[in-house]
Amino acid sequence: QVQLVESGGGLVQAGGSLRLSCAASGRTFSTYPMGWFRQAPGKEREFVAGISWNGGSYSTDYVDSVKGRFTISRDNAKKTVYLQMNSLKPEDTAVYYCAASMSKGGPRGPYDYWGQGTQVTVSS
Question: Do the beta carbons of residue 72 and residue 50 sit within 8 Å?
Answer without folding.
Answer: yes
